[in-house]
Amino acid sequence: xxxxxxxxxxxxxxxxxxxxxxxxxxxxxxxxxxxxxxxxxxxxxxxxxxxxxxxxxxxxxxxxxxxxxxxxxxxxxxxxxxxxxxxxxxxxxxxxxxxxxxxxxxxxxxxxxxxxxxxxxxxxxxxxxxxxxxxxxxxxxxxxxxxxxxxxxxxxxxxxxxxxxxxxxxxxxxxxxxxxxxxxxxxxxxxxxxxxxxxxxxxxxxxxxxxxxxxxxxxxxxxxxxxxxxxxxxxxxxxxxxxxxxxxxxxxxxxxxxxxxxxxxxxxxxxxxxxxxxxxxxxxxxxxxxxxxxxxxxxxxxxxxxxxxxxxxxxxxxxxxxxxxxxxxxxxxxxxxxxxxxxxxxxxxxxxxxxxxxxxxxxxxxxxxxxxxxxxxxxxxxxxxxxxxxxxxxxxxxxxxxxxxxxxxxxxxxxxxxxxxxxxxxxxxxxxxxxxxxxxxxxxxxxxxxxxxxxxxxxxxxxxxxxxxxxxxxxxxxx
Length: 479
Hints:
The chain is an alpha+beta fold and 479 residues long. It has helices at 4-66, 70-89, 99-120, 127-157, 159-213, 228-277, 281-297, 301-320, 327-345, 369-381, 414-421, 437-448, and strands spanning 324-326, 349-355, 363-365, 388-396, 400-407, 454-458, 464-471. Helix content is 69%, strand content 9%.
């Protein structure tokens, strides 16, 4: 999805790149022209320096011949060095047009330097000195005339260049005007297209909002764009759909309210009859206690103990379902439940305990172990003619308390294990007290706020082991 900010940055970048290309092209053309012009100007300056240097040598030579002082001698030597330097620079001016003339020009400079050196070694008033002095003046005049000739040749040679510069300047002005007009037109078109890509979706969204304001929720909101406005339109359309669905739900709810109002009296009557059919739990286990004492007085101690276990189990279920207890309390309840089941299964049901007494005060949700034991009795002991063994082990593993409940029954399939660990209700064929295995899994995870508190290891035909990893959190002690 292209954001509006990205579109603006892209458009701005394209404009800057186009203007930069135009500016670089013009700058590069001006730079090449300027380099060529500077090269020609430097040729003129070299020829001018030669004429000026030769005239300075003749002037300093005349001063020295009139007055042979050390100061005049130093000036003459200095001007000779300047002329020598100018002589070497002249070679840069050579081309096919001025090759012959420039060679004579260089020889004249050499002759002037040689004559000056020879003249400095003669007497000032001698005939040879006078003759050489006149010779230097004549050579200087030749150099000046030839300098003008070479400059004139340079002008004729580069005359097409000067005229080309003038013509190109005119053409360049025309080209710049056309480029500015063309660029302006392209930028106007691009700006119009860019603004249209932003304003058109906004107009479509505004029109859709106006339709919604009139109560028309059936028309789909569609905006052709690939930026934030398209996302906003999708969200807006999703909101329209939700509002439309909500209106339909309200209509259906209003339709059902009349039927619900008519059934209200029937529901109240049904609830009243349900309350009439319920028996007071306290009356129930008080009756069980009475029966237990009567059985004891009549000599049926086993029946008395069994009734006491049932009453205690019922009282525990009523009082402790929404509280945390200790592992000791849970093991007491398991023992009472196993006494009831052993009265039913006799020798077919055996219970083995391996308990670390240091772990009995750890906190655990109420009615955690009994449903697991009950599941083992229903699925491992009851279907087996020979019965089975249930083993409970409690160990301290430093980081947590391990409670392992194991049976030697027919085991569980992977599908059943998955249903239990996903907290789904599993249908059973036996008779249970009402608290299912899946409910235990859910309450353990809520109590300890972690999913790895329970594990099930089983396979068909090899029994089942339920492992509880209980964190060491001390719970409330109960008598």
